[in-house]
Amino acid sequence: MGDDEGGLNARELVPAAGGEWHGLLFDNQAVGLPPALTWTFRVPFAPIGGDPAALEVEWVPLAAPGWRAMAGQAAQSASFAEPAEASIHHHGHHRYDRVSLRVAEQDGARIRVVVTVSGDIDALGPASITVDAWLSFGGIRVQLGDADSAAAALSRLAAFTDVDGLTEHAGAPGVAFHFVPSS
Description:
- The chain is globular and about 45 Å long.
- A 7-stranded mixed β-barrel has the order 1-2-3-5-6-7-8.
- Strand 5 (85-89) and strand 6 (93-107) form a beta hairpin.
- It has one helix at residues 150-158; strands at 19-28, 33-48, 51-60, 74-77, 85-89, 93-107, 110-120, 128-143, 166-169, 177-181.
- The protein starts with 18 loop residues before the first strand and ends with a strand.
- The protein is mainly β and 183 residues long.
């Protein structure tokens, strides 16, 4: 269902405060997936019908030299999960095929992203959505099969990006190590 068929309506998708971006250094040795650093961008929307809604773009590969040097970075994905996955979360998971993402500017740990998603795979919402929002940095998680300590995880992360200014944050879920800005 699109805009005129009772699904999500583009006019309802109004970005709200509280968005976040974070990194993930991940591998899967069981299937031979080598380590890769990717980024997730989550833009909350004002509640729709009293219920939460958000745009989430995951697995975005950006070759930024560090978490404090994201301005100007951009990525495109022409097909779902090749490599990025874009979804609107509202009473389910509404997937979008194509992603165009640009980090327009950066102010410390906050970035302004401009994201366009299109190709409504599940036919549950608008064909295309563009958002422009400020997001706060939530840190970088490291989940590697051979990183068994925070020191090892930070060392491995340093091979992918600048880790200056990051410190371990206790309480990371599962087997991940979570590093956040130290100040």
